[in-house]
Amino acid sequence: MVRFRAVLLGFIMTLMPTALAAQNVMISIGGFAGVFVPTSDFVNQSSGDDIRKVSMRTGLVAGARAGVWFTGRLAVELEAAYVNSDMEVFAQEAGSVVSDTLLGSDMFYGSVNLMYSVFDPPLDPISIYVAGGVGFIGRGGNAFEFFSDQADFAGTLGLGLRYEVSPIVILRLDLRDYISSFSEQTPAAESKLQNDLLISLGLDVTFGG
């Protein structure tokens, strides 16, 4: 029975590329690394000489992607990324700085995106595409111990470039914007729109098509 299952699994794996090719479907998997660039403060309050500011600093990002290209121009892709960044907590009262602290954080970004190549396949080996979808942001570490809002759903927008190094290896440059709303979850708090940018360089391996 074990031998039969092994033979059956091998047979299915042998047929998979043929089936994908017949349907003109291409599968891609890959990894990426880059930088995390926050563009908005979590908290930015001022009254006279009193200032309270909480913001993330630029950090590092690493992650993985898996996608299905239904045609040469249209795809659906899953993305997961880990971000390591510091939170800066700044407070000033009566013109004097009372706090200027850096706290470590660990954040997770995940999304599913629809991708569309804006150039026709004949322009290979280079193609430029736009992306959009829905995502999730999870926040943790010492920086977020005092915040109730540690997880958010997000909308995503993206722009990217793919370069075909070989028939199965793709070099990618991506810009992904995770758009969410953050609130301290206190009665006087107001939600603040967040635009978190993930700028990355990555490699995909493809099969099928």
What can you see in these coordinates?
By secondary structure, the chain is mainly β. It has one helix spanning 2-22, and strands at residues 26-38, 43-47, 50-56, 59-69, 74-93, 96-117, 126-140, 151-164, 169-182, 192-208. The chain has an 8-stranded antiparallel β-barrel. The longest helix is centred in the first third of the chain and has 21 residues, at 2-22. The protein contains 1 helix and 10 strands, in the order H-E-E-E-E-E-E-E-E-E-E. The chain is elongated.
Provide key terms for this protein.
mainly beta, elongated, 66% strand, eight-stranded antiparallel barrel, 10% helix, 209 residues
Mean pLDDT: 81
List the quaternary state of the chains. Answer: single chain
Uncertain ranges: 1-5, 11-16, 18-22
Q: Give the CA-based shape.
A: elongated
Biggest sheet strand line-up: 1-4-5-6-7-8-9-10
Overall structural class, as computed from helix and strand content, comes to mainly beta
